[in-house]
Amino acid sequence: MNTAFSCDRCVLRCTGSPIGITGRCGVVEVYSDRTKDKYPWMIADVSVSVIEKIPLYHYKPGSWVINLWVPGCPYNCRQCPWNASTMGEDVGKLYELSKITLSDLMDYMESAKVDLINITGGEPLILNWIYELIKQLHKNNIDVTLKSTLTVPESSLKRLHNIGAILVDIPLLSGFTPNIKYIVRRTRYLQKRSIHVEVQLSIGTNVAYILKSIDEYLQELDRETPIHIAFTEPLPEKTMMKIIEYVHMDGFVYVYVKDDPSGEYSTTYCPSCGKPVVLRDIYGVRKIILKNNKCPSCGIPIKIIGAEHYRKQREISRLFATGDRIWKIR
User: Fold this and answer.
1) How many Å apart are CA 109 and CA 48, to the nearest integer?
2) What is the DSSP letter of 313?
3) pLDDT value at residue 233
4) Which of 131, 151, 281, 293 has an alpha carbon 20 to 30 Å from 314's alpha carbon atom?
5) Predicted confidence (pLDDT) at residue 323 exceeds the cutoff of 50
């Protein structure tokens, strides 16, 4: 008996047809014997920000990045701008996609005076052309970071070479039911390959589900993995503090709150003596106190890649670090 061909780019495994169907991600065409990018080398938008806005706190702090926003995602998280495809919308019409070339990116990097390129959006790793883009950028000595839900097979991650850092985004939201163990295995696989990994927990209002998921997801990770908590929906301050402390109690030494206006939960503290070693606010890095990547007070190593290359920002330049869109590619 013939078995229908299924797309293997993500966990949804959409079934193909002879004339091709658009997968639920909205960006992959699935035929009876193959898959194909529906919008190759096309992006939805581009912005410039500091790397802390991704957020990546332990990789080349203070760096300026170009964020390439690519469409397509397997999930339909509430309030997410990338869920339109799973809701039946036409991605090409909704996002006004624009073609991008390597030459364009080189020109943008030069004009914007940025340090690296970050690929973000829904789930970039379901797109074949993204792997080719990363390869070409590496040939031109351009550093690349990536944001991903890791809802892709391990075979896709094996194709991922020459990547500087990955932010693993885990939406702990109502209606989002990822296989936590599936994502853990892929996160650990990346860490074993010595790829720098940080984790973002996008927090909703179902606190019992959140705490249970944190237990399932975090227990197998390296305790020096930076954890970013992103509160996407309003919660009482007492509840937010409970979630933050819950992550700390699991033994993680670097726990942050995304876009914390106070700076208290965006600052890196020495896990040994508790002194601040990297001061941040909502705009990015304010001051790096490290000496040779060690705490100046007690001397223990602090795992931050590229801290010595930090570029001190003037006050006027920090005003542009909010991550807002600055241009639209035509």
Assistant:
1) 10
2) P
3) 86
4) 293
5) no
